[in-house]
Automatic annotation (TrEMBL):
This is Tyrosine-protein kinase Etk/Wzc. Residues 54-81, 183-217 form a coiled coil. The chain crosses the membrane at residues 284-303. GO terms for cellular component: plasma membrane. It holds the Pfam family GNVR. Keywords: ATP-binding, Coiled coil, Kinase, Membrane, Nucleotide-binding, Transferase, Transmembrane, Transmembrane helix. It comes from Methylacidimicrobium tartarophylax. One of its GO terms (molecular function) is protein tyrosine kinase activity. InterPro entries: Bact_polysacc_biosynth/exp (IPR050445), GNVR (IPR032807), P-loop_NTPase (IPR027417), Wzc-like_C (IPR005702), YlxH/NBP35 (IPR033756). NCBIfam families: eps_fam. Residues 231-300 form the Tyrosine-protein kinase G-rich domain. The lineage of its organism: Bacteria, Pseudomonadati, Verrucomicrobiota, Methylacidimicrobium. The keyword Kinase applies.
Amino acid sequence: MGSLKVEPIRNTRLVRIRCESRQPIVAAQVANGYAESFINFGLDRKLEANRHARKFLAGQMDALRKKMAQSEERLADFMAEAGIAHLSPQEKAPAEKESVQIRDSLLRARLLMLQKQIRLERAKAALADGRAGVPENPYTLEIKKLLLKEVARYQQMEETYKPEYPGMTRLHAEIEGLKGELAQEKEGSVADLEADFEAAKANYEGLEQEFQHSMEKVRGESKALAHYALLKREADTDREMYSSVMRRMRETDITSALNASNVEVVESAEVPNMPSRPKKARNLLLGFLGGGMGGIGLAIGLAKFDTRLRGKEEVERALGLPVLGMVPDTEKLRAKGIDEIPADLPMALATHVSPDSAISNSFRQIRTLLHYSIPDGRPQVMMFTSSQMGEGKSSTCVNTATVLGQQGTVLLIDADLRRPSLHKTLGLRPHPGLSELLTNQAPLEQAVQATALPNVWAIGAGRTPCHPADLLGAAAMAYLCQWARSHFGYVLLDCPPLTGMPDAAVVGTLADGAVLVIRDGYVDRSEARRVVETLLGVNTRILGAVLNRVQTSARSYYAYHYAYRLPEEQKREQSLKAPSQPS
């Protein structure tokens, strides 16, 4: 025989009995026999428990019956002796009722006495100071009105007559008489208030004595009531316990008579027609579905937790910026052997060395879209920045300068004073540069250097200053940009990354617009959004984004850009003559 398992069914009061055996008949018989044995076992235990319970309850009932009779007898004797046979436990004694009523009257009398005392004290203070506040009756109000009238008359006559004039002396005497009469009336009002207070005080003191007498009566009755409550509670407890045991004994008799089990078989086991396991078809289906769903779930999870910007559509959707162009990853192009760019060549010189490469065509597209990036003409002064280091903003800036140099003069300014790279890329003198120029340590003629790129001149960063952001925000930087506008067709500023440094935000206020360089699959969306918000916060126009090192099919990307280049454009670039350096 195989294994036997009992499994509860979730969210129900059912269990499933499983028996595995090589013989189908034996498996069904064992499962049904186990269920029947369990039911019989439960019935036997129930009957045995009922027998023990009835025997125990019968002994308890005899003892409780005697105890209940004794407690009720003691209660009856005490009630007859104390004369409180008709007093319920919830009802208060007569003396206590009377005490409560007197106490309420005493509280009201005390409140009334305090109110009258306050009114009396206020009236006395007002009378002593001559202020308003003494209660006035209609006669007092009439005297006050007449007094005010006579005073006004006296003041009017005073403008014409002297105080010795008979009419004036007579009127003055009348005013003094009215004042005396008014004072007498106020004193009478105060006397009335004092009489009211004394009456309230006498009433309060009488109620206080009456309350003390009632409390003595209550204390006399409380002892008897406390003893009565104790005996009554004891008798009620004994009666309730006896009734409870009697009910339990009746329930036990009924349960024993029923002789029923609370367990029943819902569905008996039948002899199976086929083996229960292994289920090959189901296992194959589950494996197929599990693998497929697992792969889909893994892909969705990776896409959800990977918040890096990837592809043109995602950049436009996440940042709300137009994508000016997509520069392919040169490492992938070189790995496939389909790009003409030498392996040891810096990315910044790719457009200059290999003008027919996919990268060159990408930057020509960027040049075209930059010309139409603002509605009021093409931008002249442009800054290039990124979110982090390593996104290729310097190489993007140099390559853009290369293609712009095919249409006009360009001045490259290395505004990354913390980590300058332009002088190494273009083979320039490290200094004097921008820092010396802004601190008046070198003239423009020495700072501006010619490069190997046609029609492109450059200003290196120079020596690293102590406070680059303050130097870039000085008036000298604004003057330099203004000078460059009047002498060059384009001015490109290679600025440091915006994350954690304010340098690019300071320079952004001097440019016609900013170009944000984003490395494909490298920068987090939230970080790129913060960079955009920073630029917009200083009122810098964002011309668009350049998606650098795009992780797409290098062969198709290269073939498209290479085939799409027009022969006319090649001839025009070859015939373009480089103008002399601006003065």
